[in-house]
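TL;DR need structure tokens for one chain.
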Amino acid sequence: VQTCALPICGQQIIDDKHALATGGTAEATANLASMLGAEIAGLGFVVELDFLRGREKLQGYNVMSLLHYEK
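>> reply
TL;DR here they are.
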């Protein structure tokens, strides 16, 4: 019996997005990928809007951002 026919199953993945704002989309993407059997190796962003505190929703994940905006 095949437990996972999706190519993501059992793979380590890094989810990359353009921006981290409130963290809702990144959290949902990571949760969905995990439910499909992937191991989240990290979440990468070009820009992080620190004042929106999106990183707080992503505790437990390795989060990387290139640029940070405080305000």
